[in-house]
Design a protein that fits this description.
Strand content: 25-35%
Number of helices: 1
Order of helices and strands: EEEEH
Largest sheet: 4 strands, antiparallel
Structural class: alpha+beta
Number of strands: 4
Oligomer: single chain
Radius of gyration: 12 Å
Strand order of the largest sheet: 1-2-3-4
Shape: elongated
Distance between the termini: 16 Å
C-alpha cells in the first residue's frame, strides 16, 4: 500500500509482463497507475493523484476521500 496527499493505492507485480500495476483504493472514481519499477510506480501514482486533484478543481468542488 502507498499513500500520497491523503489518498491510498495498492499495486501488484505482473511477472509475465514485468510490470507493476495498481489502483487508487480509497475513492469511488477509478484511477489506475503502472510502472516497470517500484520508484516508477510510485511516481506514476503521485502523478495520477495530482492529475485527479487538478481535474476535480476544474470540474467539481472536492476530490473524493
Amino acid at each position: 500500500m502507498i499513500e500520497y496527499k491523503g489518498h491510498k493505492g495498492c499495486y501488484e507485480f505482473d511477472e509475465e509482463k514485468q510490470l507493476f500495476y495498481g489502483k487508487v483504493s480509497d475513492i469511488e472514481d477509478v484511477i489506475t497507475f503502472q510502472g516497470t519499477s517500484v520508484s516508477q510506480v510510485k511516481e506514476s501514482f503521485e502523478d495520477a493523484i495530482n492529475e485527479y486533484i487538478a481535474w476535480c478543481k476544474k470540474y467539481r468542488n472536492e476530490p473524493d476521500k
